[in-house]
Amino acid sequence: MVSQVRAELLKLLSLPTAWVGLVLGLIAAPALALVSAGGTRRAIENGFHADASDAAFQPLGIGLLGALILGVVVMSSEYTSTGDDSPGARQLQATLAAMPRRWRLVAAKAVTLSLLVTVQGTITAVVTLALNRVVLGDLVPAAAPGRVAGAVLYWVLMGLLAYALMLIFRNGIVTLTVLILNISVVSFSYLLTKVTPLAAYLPDIVGTHMFLNEVGDVRIAPLTAGVVMTGWVVALLGLGGWMFDRRDP
Amino acid sequence: MITIEGLTRVRGRARVLHEVGFTARPGRVTGFLGPNGAGKTSTLRVLLGLDRPQAGRALIDGRRYADLERPLTVAGALLDGSGAHRSRTARAHLRWMAASNGLPKGRVDEVLELVGLAPEAGKRAGKYSLGMSRRLGLAAALLGDPPVLILDEPVNGLDPAGIRWMRAFLRDSAAEGRTVLLSSHLMGELAETADDVVIIDHGTVVADGTLAEVVGEHATLEDAFLARTAGEGASW
């Protein structure tokens, strides 16, 4: 398993698209924290945030794109045609030649992705929160370590969610479009919460309760939120892995 | 040693393979011959664990490919294309493949040298010519110095010098005691390299033996091949 994870790390880090995801995830949130500092300051002073500590975590949402890109690319790169000379040939053939045990491959990719996103998320969260303290001063309270860990775990689980959807749909464009629309333009999950309170337990919404205090009208304890989101991701990974194992590539 | 027994694969309504069986022995080049669409690639894909058969089995030294712990050290395979993501360099591609099977980093430069790709190793695979892609695919197959080689149309896209090089390489590999199984639709090519020949047509093995046995009283392998396959109204 160690050699498989090493191989997947080398594989991912020698892919330009993966670096887009890595770098985007690292710089987007701190950049947004700087750019939006004025607005955030006014919002807090005007009492827009019921819980000012949430304001410090808000910019992290944009950096999540990086984790999603990594989650997609780790699998979509396997399905890219290797060249115009042989349109049917894909990297997956080489991957399965080197690592034919499919469940082990699915696991190795999940571990690799988790490692990368943990590092990425930790650096981003720490830098963003520190920047907030610099630009907003005492308007935002210092972030509790537990909430930072919750935010990082949210990133990792969202990356894994993207990977699980890739395993199921085998199409990076569809997966990425759905996830990006959902987190950045209009959150379908959030809209659904207006229809049924149960939607608060959808994976992308419930996970935010791990580090935000004010999400919609429902209060869910951070631990419950983490357990529910992990359950979703494990179930979807299980389904994706099962489909990957059964299908002829 | 490659053992294929009773391999049957149906895809939709089409019968791709029907009770395909043959062996490829160490120290010999076994040519797997058939028209396009006859089932050569399908057989090799099952052998490599990419596709699943409905019946039968395909074993390498008595084991299924998918059960091998470090498969690159047991069998090397060359299928269509280079296998490398087009935005990855050849060296990076071979690096991760080597790492996945616990092979030393130095082995990457050895195989790049062996297939004559060392000067171009830093180029992205997407910029490679067809011939260079084949060489990269072969380099990957050779990483683990495997005793078994499985090659699908290995001379496709090679220039005359490359074809001659490949022919010598395959002969040398067999002389070293390796099992070499290569598929081709080029009869002249196979007649030059193969010790044993298996002919497949419409998913069924129609001839299997040494080159001399399969040619029989026909003048050439091509004549023998056409005599065995044309009767069924082959598409060409």
From TrEMBL, chain A:
Domain of life: Bacteria
Keyword list, A-Z: Membrane, Transmembrane, Transmembrane helix
TM annotation in the entry: 12-35, 55-75, 110-131, 151-169, 176-200, 220-244
Listed name of the protein: ABC-2 family transporter
Organism: Actinoplanes xinjiangensis
UniProtKB/TrEMBL annotation, chain B:
Domain ABC transporter, chain residue ranges per copy: 2-227
Recorded GO MF terms: ATP binding; ATP hydrolysis activity
InterPro entries linked: AAA+_ATPase, ABC_transporter-like_ATP-bd, ABC_transporter-like_CS, P-loop_NTPase
Keyword flag Glycoprotein: no
Pfam families named in the record: ABC_tran
SMART domains with a match to the protein in the record: AAA
Entry keywords, A to Z: ATP-binding, Nucleotide-binding, Transport
Transmembrane regions: none
Sequence similarity: Belongs to the ABC transporter superfamily.
Stated name of the protein: ABC-2 type transport system ATP-binding protein
